[in-house]
Amino acid sequence: SELVGGLTYLKLLLRRKLVRWSLLFRPPSLESLLPLLQGGAAMLLRQLAINVGFLVATRRAQLMDPTGVAGAAYGITMQMYSVGIILLVAMQSTAATLVPSTMAAVAAKKKKNDNDEQESSNNKETRSYSSDDAMSEARAVGDRLLGWSSLVGLVVGGLNYALLPVLVPVFSTLPEVQKAVYAPSLIASLLHIMNGPVLAGEGILMGLGCYRGLAFVTTAWIAAMVGLLSTSMAQKRIDGIMWSILLSSIIQFVGVIGHYLKIGPLSLPSKKKKTT
To answer: How confident is the model at residue 118, as a pLDDT?
Structure first.
């Protein structure tokens, strides 16, 4: 399937003339490769931290009791959580695409406007586009994406909990496991609500190329998660593991939204400085 997918993408790129056979096997220059390596290293660190954090959580659940009920309940909770988070990951990908494409569209309008002004000698009024316009429009798109993604997270979280009586028997017929799933699934529903704006914010940072800041926020989030998973609450109760994930996600929420509002290219302080 991976081979078929890769060949399909290659065919589409060749058809749209985004790739040429003459350049396909030519090694890129170090100057053009360096930004890609830096971004890739930051994203690799981010994904490694996420894998380590959830591996520790899974290990905690498996060691919690010898009967395996806790491990099964945690596994079912995360399976249902993974199904719901697909929609939020879609919002993340949408944000990573729409924000930079909006900035590129404004830049294209500016270039066209400049060419029109050079070619025409009359006094017709034409709109002047600037980098502030690009930032303002991208910020407006980012704000809307955060709002819509928050709404999607709220809906997914509500559905995740409302459908528990239907979904849990599908995953397990054991009464002990079914009973153990409800409390952590409620916390997972709350996690969906928090992930709504967080994943959209992560997508915006990806689209803007803020990989280093995103990797730093993710590492801090996972470090807090591992620390909370070391407490007695997380070692004795399955809902303690989910509370550890939820509470540590507050750091992720503050880091991502704070970067978007205060530090990143679309931050409010930078816009105010440009307009004053």
So the answer is: 56
Q: Which residues of the chain have pLDDT under 50?
A: 121-129, 270-276
Give one DSSP letter per residue of 33-74, joined into a string: HHHHHHHHHHHHHHHHHHHHHHHHHHHHHHTS-TTSHHHHHH
DSSP 3-state assignment of 12? helix
* Predicted local confidence at residue 115, as pLDDT: 59
* 211, 203 contact by CB (below 8 A): no
Confidence (pLDDT) at 119: 55
Query: What local confidence, expressed as pLDDT, does residue 44 receive?
Result: 87
Q: What distance in Å separates the CA atoms of residue 95 and residue 89, rounded to the nearest whole number? A: 10
Q: Please provide the DSSP assignment of 152-218 as one string.
A: HHHHHHHHHHHTHHHHHHHH---HHHHHHHHHHHHHHHHHHHHHHHHHHHHHHHHHTT-HHHHHHHH
pLDDT of 74-115, one tens digit each? 999 999 999 889 989 999 999 999 998 888 887 777 666 655
Q: Whose CA is closest to 202, among 50, 54, 94?
A: 94
**Distance separating alpha carbons of residues 26 and 29, to the nearest angstrom:** 9
∠ CA 210-215-100, nearest 5°, is 25
CA distances for 115 relative to 101, 105, 118, 119, 239, angstroms:
21, 15, 5, 6, 62
